[in-house]
DNA sequence: GCAAGGTC
């Protein structure tokens, strides 16, 4: 009897290695190709089988317009909405389609090990197309492996529960690709044609629009507008002072702020006339600051920007290198919960040779470490953790600093919580209430290894309830409300994540885009300051159609394609419906812009007439 | 050469 031949395809080479290692128990032979192919013999569905495990490198295809629409001077952007879209190799140099079709030859079964998300489901069908397999054919069968992590347990479990790939989820991605392409390119071509060199000094090669990049820019400009329209306001507050056991203590007012100096002076007089503070309440409460959950990509990017000064693009490049050199685990993950099978002891042991964090890792090993807090498991990859110890000269200064943070975060996540005692003393004087607070650390916990998160110690002298104290002075402090600062890159990342703009992998790309297109500039402290061009663009959308630069535009697309993913509405109906709406917006936008440009030309003509009149 | 999403 001839044996079965099984082809397995993963989303990236490293996953193919993991799957082949588990299923062959390490007994595989690897041969080079467009991507490596791992071969071995094992049982498959009760029969002896020859296995080949290989991978793609992300998407095999990407969508674009046919050649006829590529010449932007010869095409009306409005026609793009009803144009055909064609798929072509995402990376022609990699020759992935040819690789898949060659390896599939003679195979009786195809098992798809793509990442278990919508994009992965879409890549499943790209692989099916290249391999020549068809769903439900007699001579070859197609299976989908659904795995929640790349552990031996989950891989074997997925093998015992093979399912079919989900066509609807794949179609939802097709819908998004077509909508993003048509909307983005139509607006971008129109804007570039009409704004470039037309007026002002908005000189730029391309003036782009996109349902992710434009709301991203919108966040930066929104903050800029808050700053530029901010009107500072004076305020007053009372601070009584006392001397207790040789310490001067400044008290805070329950009313916090007043915006009228006369009322402030009245209260100051009341307090001074009384002159005696009554201690009405003393409370001590133990508070806890929780250790961090596992590190995911977005949180790594935020820390890299705010604490290490690395932009997201650079942070990902450094992380990628640390990953391929085996120092940290896979750096693209949404999960913050460690899998149940995670080897904490092994990871700690791997760090004991680290010059700076090694002794702390050793201490956790000998004295015991904590089970990490919950977090979320999205089922993609485990949180980002160190894998082996390193020294600075092995990595270079930047990679070393990022690696150090990954170590500190991991160690922090298996350390005790930080415990501290908060003391609050309440006073009354002249009918007004004041208080002071102190705090002291009881258990340092994870803040030992992440000292910047530590509790700032504030000691208070002893007080007794019912005690009466003489006030030493009563300050009427005059302050001024201040404008917020420019949006920091790490705040922007938080806003994007919260509003569903981009993914962990694409957030750095969008931020990089708005910088490279000269819409914002990164200033010291990684603050994002919009340029004249960026401000003009967003103000333009705000005048014509504010939806265009709001994050809801992305949520709307996501929500519509989810109907496809769930099989509730047909793919083509959703695409038509969404494109129809964007086409209306596009037409209105074009009309308004053209009217405005006509108006400007009219103004110029008036100015010219006035000039020639006065210069006669 | 314009979008956004994979991954390198």
From TrEMBL:
Q: Which InterPro entries match?
A: Topo_IA (IPR000380), Topo_IA_2 (IPR003601), Topo_IA_AS (IPR023406), Topo_IA_cen (IPR013497), Topo_IA_cen_sub1 (IPR013824), Topo_IA_cen_sub2 (IPR013825), Topo_IA_cen_sub3 (IPR013826), Topo_IA_core_domain (IPR023405)
Q: What is the lineage of its organism?
A: Eukaryota, Viridiplantae, Streptophyta, Embryophyta, Tracheophyta
**Short name of one Pfam family for this protein?**
Toprim
- EC number annotated for this UniProt entry: 5.6.2.1
In terms of SUPFAM superfamilies, this protein maps to: Prokaryotic type I DNA topoisomerase (SSF56712)
Question: What does this chain do?
Answer: Releases the supercoiling and torsional tension of DNA introduced during the DNA replication and transcription by transiently cleaving and rejoining one strand of the DNA duplex. Introduces a single-strand break via transesterification at a target site in duplex DNA. The scissile phosphodiester is attacked by the catalytic tyrosine of the enzyme, resulting in the formation of a DNA-(5'-phosphotyrosyl)-enzyme intermediate and the expulsion of a 3'-OH DNA strand. The free DNA strand than undergoes passage around the unbroken strand thus removing DNA supercoils. Introduces a single-strand break via transesterification at a target site in duplex DNA. Releases the supercoiling and torsional tension of DNA introduced during the DNA replication and transcription by transiently cleaving and rejoining one strand of the DNA duplex. The scissile phosphodiester is attacked by the catalytic tyrosine of the enzyme, resulting in the formation of a DNA-(5'-phosphotyrosyl)-enzyme intermediate and the expulsion of a 3'-OH DNA strand.
Describe the location of the Topo IA-type catalytic domain by residue ranges: 166-587
Give the highest taxon in the source lineage.
Eukaryota
Q: Which reaction does it catalyse?
A: ATP-independent breakage of single-stranded DNA, followed by passage and rejoining
Mind telling me what this protein is named? Answer: DNA topoisomerase
GO MF entry, a single one: DNA topoisomerase type I (single strand cut, ATP-independent) activity
The Toprim domain covers which part of the protein?
A: 5-150
Which species expresses this protein natively?
Answer: Trapa natans
Listed A to Z, the keywords are:
DNA-binding, Isomerase, Topoisomerase
GO biological process terms, alphabetically, are: DNA recombination; DNA repair; DNA topological change
